[in-house]
Amino acid sequence: xxxxxxxxxxxxxxxxxxxxxxxxxxxxxxxxxxxxxxxxxxxxxxxxxxxxxxxxxxxxxxxxxxxxxxxxxxxxxxxxxxxxxxxxxxxxxxxxxxxxxxxxxxxxxxxxxxxxxxxxxxxxx
Amino acid sequence: xxxxxxxxxxxxxxxxxxxxxxxxxxxxxxxxxxxxxxxxxxxxxxxxxxxxxxxxxxxxxxxxxxxxxxxxxxxxxxxxxxxxxxxxxxxxxxxxxxxxxxxxxxxxxxxxxxxxxxxxxxxxxxxxxxxxxxxxxxxxxxxxxxxxxxxxxxxxxxxxxxxxxxxxxxxxxxxxxxxxxxxxxxxxxxxxxxxxxxxxxxxxxxxxxxxxxxxxxxxxxxxxxxxxxxxxxxxxxxxxxxxxxxxxxxxxxxxxxxxxxxxxxxxxxxxxxxxxxxxxxxxxxxxx
Lengths: 125, 288
Description:
The structure holds two protein chains of two kinds. By secondary structure, chain A is mainly β. Chain A has one helix spanning 3-15; strands at 27-36, 39-53, 61-68, 71-78, 84-91, 93-94, 114-115. Chain A has a five-stranded antiparallel β-sheet with strand order 4-3-2-1-5, with no helix packed on it. In chain A, strands 6-7 form a two-stranded antiparallel ribbon. The mean pLDDT of chain A is 91. Chain B is an alpha+beta fold. In chain B, strand 1 (6-17) and strand 2 (23-30) form a beta hairpin. Chain B is elongated and about 150 Å long. The A-B interface holds A 2-4, 7-8, 11, 15, 33, 58-59, 78, 80-83 and B 11-21, 23, 28, 30, 186, 188.
């Protein structure tokens, strides 16, 4: 392992974030820390994960899309951000793409994702 | 106050997540067996500087002259050598090794290296020229530079005119980069932002010239021998403290022992009294 990979692996373990197994198509709820003045609270953001980038590494990120007051909203979160309080999987979706950018052009019925009822948790290595 | 810089190897870039939720892009620079190879003094050379060497080179691939130079300094052959001007007060002994603690977190530094070579490039890429128009009669030369000067007077192209040519592979200094983290054990210095050159390239790090020199910089340099001495001193102090503690514990134990004996003696006394009382009572009984 080269030095950069070593440093990144060290940082991932040091951050020790509990990241569930999820992929594009899953509906997830992200607890994001918001600082208002001096007070910090956790804001929940729930929507469909439409993309995962750069894997599980320190540079990893994911995009969550939801329809808010009739307007599509997308937020990109760094996977290992210290601002993320929690990530919870609400629903497993069955999709055949890694990136669900086609959802941007769809609304309502056609933007639905079928539930994956055959989900098996990944075996812990 | 001018002190020595360091030679480092660019390892690559990564990011650091901070507790306040910020993420900082950092370049990881590594100090590899960084030692003082020679000293330049005002008496001998007319100026004062330290010559540092970094990395490891095979002895058989080092020239005879350089082998002699390294042998005189009693150091292993080095891959990269650089000189740093320093104040005469900040000269370092030959053979000393410099550690990554030379810079502290938050300090600003200037990093110099050789930029990545781009080869022969046109004026658009090399000098950010706009090029020619896409239409309106422009033929074939959409990415060319335009005019290079005036007319019969002066009748020549001025020297230094920005034109196409070789780009990159030049000495570049990036100023005022902030040190985010240092790791003396592995010899790592992490600076915020990008640094000239490719991965595995050599760079030199100096205190930022455009910032005031901080008060808490280590003069003349953060040396391994100093660190070892400090560690030894700390160990000795710890040992002394341990010995003291042991002595204190021993004293306490002795005191406890004494107290115990005293208590036993004390306990024995009432027994004697009680026995005497009992005997007296018996005597009384007998009398009756």
